[in-house]
Amino acid sequence: MADSAKLNEQMWSAILTFAGTLQAHADLRAFVDASSGAPNDPSRSRRMSLRRGLAVLMNAGIPSTRIYVRVIGSPGETGEETPADRVDIRRSDAVP
């Protein structure tokens, strides 16, 4: 959802499942790649991306010390690899 860190019910369910795996394995970390497009304000895009990335797992009970957030894409950039308004999550033991 543009300009929002809110998640729909399906995404929230998937994140809770992911968070459960992290909670069961203290050695795992979460890598969050977040993107948000705001062509007129690059800093706004970065802030939204980071807010979304952290909201994703901290609200599911994962401490911030186990979450690594990276902003991907440039404002206004679209395409299959880095479309605007998205968050990708993977475990530290996952092959990128």
CATH architecture classification: 2-Layer Sandwich
CATH class annotation: Alpha Beta
Q: Which radius of gyration do the C-alpha atoms yield? A: 13 Å
CATH topology: 60s Ribosomal Protein L30, Chain: A
Q: What overall form do the CA principal axes indicate?
A: globular
> What percentage of amino acids are in beta strands?
15-25%
Query: What is the fourth-level CATH superfamily?
Result: OmpA-like domain
Question: Any low-confidence stretches, pLDDT <50, length ≥5?
Answer: none
Question: Helix content range of the residues, please?
Answer: 25-40%
Mean pLDDT, to the nearest integer, reads: 75
The number of strands is 3
* Biggest sheet architecture: 3 strands, mixed
List key phrases describing it.
96 residues, 60s Ribosomal Protein L30, Chain: A, single chain, 18% strand, alpha+beta
How would you describe what is shown here?
34% of the residues lie in helices and 18% in strands. With 96 residues, the chain is α+β, with helices and mostly antiparallel strands. It has one domain (9-91): OmpA-like domain (60s Ribosomal Protein L30, Chain: A, 2-Layer Sandwich). The mean pLDDT is 75.
Task: Summarize the helices and strands and which ones pair or pack.
Blueprint lengths: L8 H16 L5 E6 L6 H17 L8 E5 L14 E6 L5
Parallel strand pairs: 1-2
Antiparallel strand pairs: 1-3
